From TrEMBL:
GO terms for biological process: acylglycerol catabolic process. This is Pimeloyl-ACP methyl ester carboxylesterase. One of its GO terms (cellular component) is membrane. The lineage of its organism: Bacteria, Bacillati, Actinomycetota, Actinomycetes, Propionibacteriales. Residues 1-23 are annotated as: Disordered. Residues 55-284 form the AB hydrolase-1 domain. It comes from Microlunatus soli. One of its GO terms (molecular function) is monoacylglycerol lipase activity. InterPro entries: AB_hydrolase_1, AB_hydrolase_fold, AB_hydrolase_sf.
Amino acid sequence: MTISDDHTSTAPPAPGDQHPAADALPRMLDSDELITLDGVDLHVCQNGPADAPALLLIHGTGASARSWEPMLGSLTGSHRVIRIDLLGCGRSSRPDDGNYAVTDQVRRIGVLLDRLGVGRVVVAGHSSGGVFATALAVHRPDLLDGVVLINTGPRMSAYIAADVPLRNAAWSDLTDDQIRAAIRDGFHPGFAIPASYVDQFREIDFEAFGAVSVAIRSYLEEQPLPDRLAPIGRPLLVIFGDQDQRWDPAAAADYHAVRGARITMMPGLGHSPNLEDPQRTAAALLTFTAAHTADVGSGRD
């Protein structure tokens, strides 16, 4: 802007001097908080533009909201990314009554989204996080623009991993090598498990880990996920690493029972594409959300 000796010029600013009004800039979220619902504390992280389409990310068993960090840089430019720690994981508390049932947890997640003012969301779940994503779609289809399942087994009979017995009362009793041995089938053969992921595993409450595993198994045995998703009529993307050592990759075809489901196989990746190749996984996710995300504030029958 040009300044004269005695007054401010009314001439328009030069192009290089123009700045957007403060109220025209998007409000950026970078929050990390505990929100109390029904007597338990849920750890919630939000990143990205507050008015952008919402994307809810749900981690798998033995992980936490931190497991999505490698993908954040690719997602937060265009989405309001919401990450949660499931009960007993990360910084979320354990329920006093020991109730980790899938349906009760997603009911609470639905209330959380209402409290956050999220009208519509795409929900993505990795591994058993996809079980919770499916249950949320069943419980609150009014909230969802779409569902993304990343290496989520469609039924218990598709589980192919050998269980590794862990008898310790706390993860702190295990060495890093013991933890890596216990979770190595969660990645493609030869993947170098980073120390940060070992640390995440240590954050999980040991008793909660067992209780959540039982709850997930019960939900899958009661009814396969494709059968639950088929009547809902929401867009579905299934991402599956073709080197998965926990769930039979061929079982991903079961999701074709859901009308219009898109199945994207990831060559060379194992059970955790979001950690093994976060850029490729984010690209597949963003292609889906671009096609199926409603405008913020709009509704859909």
